[in-house]
Design a protein that fits this description.
The complex is a heterodimer. Chain A is an alpha+beta fold. In chain A, a hairpin with a 2-residue loop joins β3 and β4. Chain B is 75% helix and 0% strand. Chain B is globular, with a radius of gyration of 17 Å. Chain B starts with 8 loop residues before the first helix and ends with a helix. Classes of the chains: A alpha+beta, B mainly alpha.
């Protein structure tokens, strides 16, 4: 009985507090002449509409934003964010792919080095380095008939250029070949790895291109070439 | 211009202007912003006579517009007002009325999270039911009940903390 009386008192207290809060929240004093200012701006707006300066079709009539519309806006933002992320991924992947040297690039380099279009000092330096350090560790003859790569007097008939990136470098060797040696027209890894060096080779239009790098070929040629 | 309710926009100003202003002020704690928000609502109401005419409850419609305008205002003013800001504003904008210290009430209100304040004001200003609030805020009724209860309690706690507050006296008298 006494509990029920206490409950009643609590309810009455709650109701009274609610009433008081409600009244107090609503009792905000308005700035002087606020309603008049609003009416004035309404009249001005009404007049400008009537004078045709701002036709109904030209006014941005926002509908009342319902919660559904707010949700729609939120979904739109999510869609935009997802689309932007996808675009970034595609662009990023494209840039990554673009930065990877292509078979064509190596072939072009080879043609240029064979035709003497590259700086002769650079080419000579690469050739020197190759034979002094790299060549001794990597035997081309194990995979390529080196006799075909020699000129009539038995001298090395190819040309070498070194291409470096920030983290790695690759030697590109180009040899003019009189006949096909049976290599693919795109770079394919070839056996004969030694001393941590790996090679890939291709041939095209009478030129054999061999690239050699200490590390991973995947840094230099399209990963898809291996699949 | 007169709507199908028989009320011109100016009549709407007379009838609902003060209440809408009070609502906007309680949400923003800024007299100037509250005035701008409600003025903008009336201008849009005048330009959007057809929608107003179709509204079954014109007061609820206007409150919805004020709520939306206030939400936009709050998104534009992401920096939340500090209590000091509110104190400086309320010193100028709110006068003491009988019962509760209005400055202290506004400070307590601004201390509430936005979602709680919105529920509380819909309840006290619009006399909206739980379901109406839930629909407007797109949350379950249980969430509305919980937020309202916690908001009320937080505000009452805040008000009863003040020694100068006559909240308790107001209830007990």
């Amino acid at each position: 009985m006494s509990e029920s009386r206490n409950d009643k008192i609590r309810w009455e207290f709650a109701d009274e507090a609610d009433r008081l809060l409600r009244d107090q929240l609503r009792s905000v004093e308005c700035p002087t002449s606020m309603l008049e200012r609003w009416k004035e701006s309404i009249r001005n707006s009404d007049n400008s509409q009537a004078s045709g300066s701002l036709g109904p079709s030209e006014i941005a009539f926002d509908k009342v934003l319902t919660s559904t519309m707010v949700r729609g806006m939120s979904q739109r933002w999510w869609s935009i964010a997802i689309a932007a992320t996808l675009i970034c991924l595609v662009v990023g992947w494209s840039v990554f792919q673009w930065r990877q040297p292509s078979d064509q690039m190596f072939y072009t380099q080879s043609q240029m080095v064979l035709n003497g279009q590259l700086n002769p000092t650079t080419v000579e330096l690469a050739k020197l380095t190759w034979f002094e350090s790299v060549g001794s560790q990597l035997s081309l003859s194990r995979v390529i008939d080196t006799e075909t790569l020699a000129s009539a007097d038995g001298d090395f008939s190819g040309a070498i250029v070194k291409i470096s990136s920030a983290s790695d470098s690759v030697y590109v060797m180009a040899y003019p070949i009189p006949r096909s040696l049976g290599f693919s027209r795109s770079l394919r890894p070839v056996p004969g790895t030694s001393g941590g060096w790996v090679m890939a080779a291709m041939e095209s239009d009478g030129v054999l291109v061999v690239i050699a790098t200490k590390g991973s070929l995947k840094n230099w040629i399209n990963v898809n070439a291996f699949t | 211009m007169t709507s199908s309710h028989g009320l011109s926009t100016e009549a709407l100003v007379d009838r609902f202007g003060r209440l809408l202003y009070a609502y906007a002020f309680r949400m923003t704690a800024s007299s100037a912003d509250a005035e701008d928000i409600v003025q903008n609502v009336f201008l849009r109401a005048m330009q959007n006579q057809e929608s107003i005419a179709q509204a079954s409850n014109i007061q609820a419609y206007l409150f919805a517009m004020v709520r939306n305008e206030t939400s936009k205002w709050m998104m534009r003013n992401k920096r939340m007002k500090t209590v000091e800001d509110i104190e400086s504003v309320t010193d100028n904008d709110v006068t003491e009325t009988s019962g509760i210290d209005q400055d202290w009430l506004q400070i307590g209100l601004m201390k509430l999270p936005d979602a709680f304040r919105r529920v509380l004001l819909m309840f006290y200003f619009e006399d909206a039911s739980y379901k109406e609030i839930a629909d407007a805020m797109d949350v379950p009724i249980g969430t509305v009940m919980s937020r309202l209860s916690r908001a009320k309690q937080a505000l009452k706690d805040h008000l009863t903390q003040s020694e100068s507050s006559s909240f308790r006296n107001g209830i007990q008298s």
